[in-house]
Design goal:
6-stranded parallel β-sheet, 2 domains, globular, Rossmann fold, about 35% helix, Quinone Oxidoreductase, Chain A, domain 1
C-alpha cells in the first residue's frame, strides 16, 4: 500500500507544478489520508490557484481550484504569495498566442512577490519571513503557495510597497532596458513614445527624467484626455500630445526647445507608430515592444532612404535568456529603490484574490479603461 500511495503522491505533486494531468480524486484521498500525514513535516500547505486546463479565453478557461500539498526539498523554498499582477502577456499565455507558454494544465501568472513560509534543510540565505520575488519571472504565480528551488528566488527589501514589488520585474525592467540598450542617450537628449499611459510608458517617463532625458508622449483621443495630460506631466513628461494634434505636416514645430529624439518606443502599431516615426531625427531608431491596436507598422520609403530610420524589436523574455541577464537582480534592486524613494510610481489597483473574476474582467477591458490589476492574496 505504501508504494501505491507514493505513486499517487507523485502524480498529485506533478499536477501542482503544472507538469501533468490532474490526479484522480481517489489518489488525492489517499494522499490526504495517508501519505500527507507521513510527510507533513516536509510538505507545503495546500494551495488555492487560478488554473486553466486548456488554452482559450481567460474568462472561460480559468478556474480557481484547490491544489494538494507538495514536498519541500532540501534546496527549496516554500513561498506564501502576497501579490501578483495580471499582465497582457499573462492573458496571451492563457489564450495560447504567446510565443512561450507553459504546457496545460497550468497555473496562471508570471511575476509577483511573496513571503518565505518554509525552507529546505540545505537552504542558506533565505529565512521564513523574508520577502522574495521570482527572478527570472516564472509561470504559476497566481496561487497562494509556490515551491521552487531557492536559486529562483530573489530576496528584496521588505520596506518596498507590496504592489510595486509584485510588478517590478516585467514592465519597469522593460522600460529600463529599452532606454539603455538601443541608443547612447545622454542628459538633454529626448525620446518619443506612444502608449504613454501604459505601465511601461509611465516608467519610461520617470526613468528618462532621472537621467535628465526629455520625453515626448503620445496618447489616444478620448474623454478626459486633458486630465491624462496633466497626470503624465506630473510624472515628468515634458510634452504630451493626443493623436489628433499631430495631424500636421511638421510635428517638430510643436517641440519648442526639445531636441529631435533619436529614440522612440511603440507599443500600439498602426497610425500611432507612424506618429512616433514622424518625430524621430535622421538616423533615429524606433523600438517596438507591443502591438495593442493589432495593426501593422507602415513605414514610408522616404523614412528609410532619406531619414535612415531603424526599426527594432524588444522582448524581455529573450533578453533575460541572454548573458546580460546576470545583471538582472541588480537592476531590479535599483528599480525597487526608486519606488521606495517615490521617484518611480504607476497606476495600479489591488484586488482581493476572492474577487479574481472581477479583476480579470478589468484586465480584459470589459469594464473600460482600468489601471493595472494586482491580485492580493
Amino acid at each position: 500500500m505504501a508504494t501505491v500511495r507514493l505513486v499517487h503522491l507523485k502524480a498529485a505533486l506533478q499536477w501542482h507544478g503544472g507538469t501533468s494531468s490532474p490526479p484522480p480524486p481517489w489518489s488525492l484521498f489517499r494522499l490526504r489520508s495517508g501519505a500527507f500525514r507521513a510527510f507533513s513535516s516536509t510538505m507545503s500547505p495546500p494551495s488555492k490557484a487560478v488554473v486553466y486546463d486548456e488554452q482559450g479565453p481567460p474568462d472561460t478557461v480559468c478556474k480557481v481550484k484547490e491544489l494538494p500539498p507538495v514536498p519541500i526539498k532540501e534546496q527549496d523554498a516554500c513561498v506564501r504569495m502576497l501579490a501578483s499582477p495580471i499582465n497582457p502577456s499573462d492573458i496571451n499565455r492563457i489564450e495560447g498566442v504567446y510565443p512561450v507558454r507553459p504546457p496545460v494544465p497550468a497555473v496562471g501568472g508570471y511575476e509577483g512577490v511573496g513571503e518565505v513560509h518554509a525552507v529546505g534543510s540545505a537552504v542558506k540565505g533565505l529565512s521564513p519571513g523574508d520577502w522574495v520575488i521570482p527572478s527570472p519571472p516564472t509561470s504559476g504565480t497566481w496561487q497562494t503557495y509556490v515551491v521552487k528551488e531557492q536559486s529562483l528566488w530573489h530576496r528584496i527589501d521588505k520596506s518596498t510597497p507590496m504592489e510595486y514589488a509584485a510588478t517590478i520585474t516585467v514592465n519597469p525592467l522593460t522600460a529600463l532596458r529599452m532606454l539603455e540598450d538601443f541608443v547612447d542617450l545622454r542628459s538633454g537628449d529626448a525620446v518619443v513614445q506612444n502608449g504613454a499611459t501604459s505601465m511601461v510608458g509611465q516608467c519610461i517617463i520617470q526613468l528618462a527624467r532621472v537621467r535628465g532625458i526629455r520625453s515626448i508622449n503620445i496618447i489616444r483621443d478620448r474623454a478626459g484626455s486633458d486630465e491624462v495630460k496633466q497626470t503624465l506631466k506630473k510624472l515628468g513628461g515634458d510634452e504630451v500630445f493626443i493623436e489628433s494634434q499631430l495631424e500636421v505636416k511638421n510635428v517638430k514645430s510643436l517641440l519648442a526647445d526639445i531636441p529631435e529624439p533619436a529614440l522612440g518606443f511603440n507599443c500600439v502599431g498602426g497610425n500611432a507608430a507612424s506618429l512616433v516615426l514622424k518625430f524621430l531625427k535622421r538616423g533615429g531608431t524606433m523600438v517596438t515592444y507591443g502591438g495593442m491596436s493589432k495593426k501593422p507598422i507602415t513605414v514610408s520609403t522616404s523614412s528609410f532612404i532619406f531619414k535612415d530610420l531603424s526599426l527594432r524589436g524588444f522582448w524581455l523574455q529573450k533578453w533575460m535568456s541572454s548573458e546580460k541577464a546576470k545583471e538582472c537582480r541588480e537592476m531590479i534592486d535599483y528599480l525597487l529603490s526608486l519606488t521606495r524613494s517615490g521617484e518611480l510610481k504607476y497606476d495600479m489597483e489591488l484586488c482581493p484574490f476572492d474577487q479574481f473574476p472581477t479583476a480579470l474582467d478589468k484586465a480584459l477591458g470589459k469594464l473600460g479603461s482600468q489601471p493595472k490589476q494586482v491580485i492580493k492574496f
